[in-house]
Design a protein that fits this description.
With about 170 residues, the chain is mostly helical. The longest helix has 18 residues. It has nine helices and no strands. It is globular, with a radius of gyration of 17 Å.
Length: about 170
């Protein structure tokens, strides 16, 4: 509140700037570029790919918000990229198994990969959104073999709660 930030659970450029200013933390230029604001048309792109691929747009928006706060250039420590934070192995699976060709490494391509994978998980788990989101978070195989991990349950609950607000 003191630095006039919204409580949105996203460490974006404004939050980073506030921390740097308050604590005098040195920040490398590459970190600042990675946390650049998301393109304003991300929700429209999410909606378009959701409609095209037949996946609920509210669910896709909630997942994207949970994963990246709609930031397009964010890269996790594990190498997950883009708005939906898909791993390179997930992209490879989608391209090789689900669509049979490479997809562009653009915002649209990243969203297409994520929505295609979510659609796959929804099909695998017979439309059960909770299990599909658990598969997204901990892996499809792990859900099938071990059920939903305790650490996964808050993620699923948060995405489903966000879904009702999107």
């Amino acid at each position: 509140r003191r630095v006039h930030l919204a409580a949105d659970a996203v460490v974006g450029p404004r939050t980073l700037a506030a921390i740097v200013h308050r604590d005098r933390v040195p920040v490398r230029e590459t970190v600042a570029r990675t946390l650049a604001p998301a393109a304003g048309d991300v929700p429209a792109k999410l909606d378009a790919w959701s409609a095209r691929l037949g996946v609920d747009a509210h669910l896709v928006r909630a997942l994207a918000w949970m994963e990246s706060g709609y930031q397009t250039r964010i890269v996790s420590a594990a190498g997950a990229r883009g708005v939906l934070q898909t791993l390179p192995t997930t992209r490879s699976y989608v391209e090789t198994v689900l669509v049979g060709h490479r997809l562009p490494g653009t915002v649209d391509g990243d969203i297409e990969v994520g929505v295609l994978y979510l659609k796959h998980l929804l099909n695998v788990f017979h439309g059960d959104e909770s299990l599909a989101l658990a598969g997204w978070y901990q892996g499809e195989r792990a859900v099938r073999e071990s059920g939903v991990y305790n650490v996964t349950k808050p993620f699923v609950a948060n995405v489903l709660a966000l879904r009702s607000r999107m």
